[in-house]
Amino acid sequence: MHAVDMPFSYVIGGFGPWAAALMMLAAVQSEYLHRGALSRCALGFALLGAGLVANGWSDPAARWPILTLALAAVVGTAVIYRALRQLVGARPTRMPRLALEVALPCLALLPAWTAGPRSFALTFHVLCLAVSLGIAWTVRRALVAPRNTAEAAVAVILLLYAGTWVYALYAMLRHDGPEHRHLLYVEPPFLAGYAVLYALLPLLVGVLVFNLANARLHHRLRRHANTDDLTGLMTRRALLEQAGPWQDDVLERGRQPVVLLLDVDHFKPINDTHGHERGDEVLRAVSDRLAGTLRAGTPLARWGGEEFLVLMDVASLDQAAAAAERMRAAVAERPFASGESRLKVTTSIGVSAWPAGVDLAQAVANADAALYSAKREGRDQARMAGPA
Ligand SMILES: Nc1nc2c(ncn2[C@@H]2O[C@H](COP(=O)(O)OP(=O)(O)OP(=O)(O)O)[C@@H](O)[C@H]2O)c(=O)[nH]1
Predict the structure, then answer these.
(1) Do residues 240 and 360 make contact, with C-beta atoms less than 8 angstroms apart?
(2) Which atom of ligand 1 is nearest to the CA of 270?
(3) In the CATH hierarchy, which top-level class contains the domain 234-384?
(4) 272 within ligand 1 shell (Cβ under 6 A)
(5) Whole-prediction pTM
(6) Is the Cβ atom of 376 under 6 angstroms away from ligand 1?
(7) Looking at ligand 1, which atom is closest to the CA of residue 263?
(8) Which of 77, 134, 316, 350 has minimal Cβ neighbours within 10 Å of its Cβ?
(9) pLDDT at residue 253 tops 70
(10) Predicted ipTM?
(11) DSSP class of residue 178?
(12) Which residues are registered as beta bridge partners of 308?
């Protein structure tokens, strides 16, 4: 066999696996990491691996190393594919089934191989084109209307990828001469390079994909743990995590940290009279109104059932009292619509300074004591705690 049309072989040998690798990465990035996209990428890898093996077979010196490396690459791809499916929560594919899925199209190459290099190359190109069209189908949304850069990148890569195979077919059909019979053939030194590429690439991509998928899962879990489902405010946990560094920063800027604890008055009767769902609506509306009185970035958490906690930096405690009054008024001034009826909702608020060297738990306990006296003295009011 001769090496012919080197740049072309180079494109097929070099671009194909990278395109498949990028596809896998983009699939993770763009949230359409699903069975269809993944299995077609895995198939793309396997097919290219099979093409490489067939190529290497013609060179006795390269035969066994290439065979071993390419098989390792195929197995590596299958393992990564399976792990990824588990990561995204899909039922794990059974290995024999996956092996069959990937092996069948590769086996289709066998009869073509025995029929001669030209029919082999032709079959190979048709299969690869089918795979690239298959991938295009699974990610068609990215092609038609990409929503972000990752999706736009997928569209470009796919077009190049499919274009490579279309061109390969065109070139094969147009040139019947012997020099175009072995479009897959690559010189042994390059072949060895590709073989290493095949063996390393799935590993490399696997590590990248795992990291990306892990980072995304981690981010999602953190967001779930730190966001209150009902109100969208931060949870107690999230506020506790931020509180220490927040206090350091406020003190450094020469301002005073204060804690405001708010509790919706007579909330139980709202639930009992209007139902739990209406109660939920009221909690959401209260949290919106509270947030509306605060500067963006002020830590506001849902502290418990109908309790909210605010960390605020002020120049003086008078400012904190004024802010508490604003929050109280924002809730009390207009009734909340609940179906046909209007619900008047009020809050009681306890405010406490949170000076340096005092635990947040202590400051919250002081605010809670102030809140308790606000409740005792008739509710719908804010009370300042004694010195912390
Ligand atoms: N709808 C709804 N109700 C909740 C939620 N979390 C806690 N609650 C209810 O909030 C009510 C709190 O009632 P209490 O602690 O007795 O206080 P209250 O009726 O507000 O009276 P005071 O605080 O003394 O003014 C309880 O009935 C809880 O079931 C929630 O997420 N949604």
Answers:
(1) yes
(2) 19
(3) alpha beta
(4) no
(5) 0.57
(6) no
(7) 23
(8) 316
(9) yes
(10) 0.96
(11) G
(12) 262, 302
